[in-house]
C-alpha cells in the first residue's frame, strides 16, 4: 500500500492508497517537534481501528513545512522500510517541469495540485487552494506550472484581525445571511466572506485577461465548498486534489524507475 502525506503549515494529512482507491484519510496538527515514533503510534492505532489489512510499502511526501520532513522520512524508513519520494527534492521528478524565474522555489503543494488538476481537467487551468494561504496556480496547456498568486488565507486573516484589534471577537467562517451585518460578529463574517468572494472573482478575472484565453477554475482546500455556495466561481470543487496529485507523481516516478 502507498502512504501519501500532505504536510501543510497548519495540518498534516495521511492517506492510504491500496492500488484502487484511497481507503482511509486522517488529519493531525503540523508540529515539527513530533517524532517519527509518535507519528507511528498515532497512525498505527488508527489503521488498526479501521481494521486495515496489508502493509504500507511505499510513501510520498509533500511538505510546506521543511522542519517536519526529517521525522516523516524517519517514519517511512524505520517503520515502513521504504525511502519516500519528497516532492521538490532530488529523486522526485515531475511529469512537466515548472516554468518560473530562475532560482525560484515553488511550493510542493502547488506543484502537486498542478499535476492533479491537469490530469483531471487539462491545461489552461486555475487552481484555487484555500489553505493557510489562499493560492492561485496557473497551469499551461502542456501541464506546466507557470506561476500564480498568493494571498493571506481566510483563517489567517481572521486571526490577524483578532490579534490587531483586541475588542473584536474571534469568529467562525460562514456564509452570512446578507452583506450588511447588524452585530459585530455578523459584520466580521460578512467582511471576510464577501471580501474573499471578491478576491477570488477579481484575481481570476485578471488572470484570464492577462492570459487572454478561456480558463477553467477549480478549487480545493478545507473552505472551498463554503465559497462555492450559490455562486459560479468554480467549475468544480476537488476535495481530494492534493492526494490525487501525490499518487500521480508517485506513479510517474515508479515508471521512470526512480
From TrEMBL:
The active site is at residue 109. Pathway: Cofactor biosynthesis; coenzyme A biosynthesis; CoA from (R)-pantothenate: step 1/5. GO terms for molecular function: ATP binding; metal ion binding; pantothenate kinase activity. It is found in: Cytoplasm. Its EC number is 2.7.1.33. It catalyses: (R)-pantothenate + ATP = (R)-4'-phosphopantothenate + ADP + H(+). The keyword Metal-binding applies. GO terms for biological process: coenzyme A biosynthetic process. One of its GO terms (cellular component) is cytoplasm. Its main location: cytoplasm. Gene3D superfamilies: 3.30.420.40. Its cofactor is NH4(+); K(+). ATP binds at residues 6-13, 132. Pfam families: Pan_kinase. InterPro entries: ATPase_NBD, Type_III_PanK. A monovalent cation. Ammonium or potassium. Substrate binds at residues 107-110, 184. Keywords: ATP-binding, Coenzyme A biosynthesis, Cytoplasm, Kinase, Metal-binding, Nucleotide-binding, Potassium, Transferase. It is an enzyme of class 2 (transferase). Homodimer. PANTHER family: TYPE III PANTOTHENATE KINASE (PTHR34265:SF1). Belongs to the type III pantothenate kinase family. Catalyzes the phosphorylation of pantothenate (Pan), the first step in CoA biosynthesis. This is Type III pantothenate kinase. It comes from Rhodobacter viridis. The lineage of its organism: Bacteria, Pseudomonadati, Pseudomonadota, Alphaproteobacteria, Rhodobacterales. The gene is coaX.
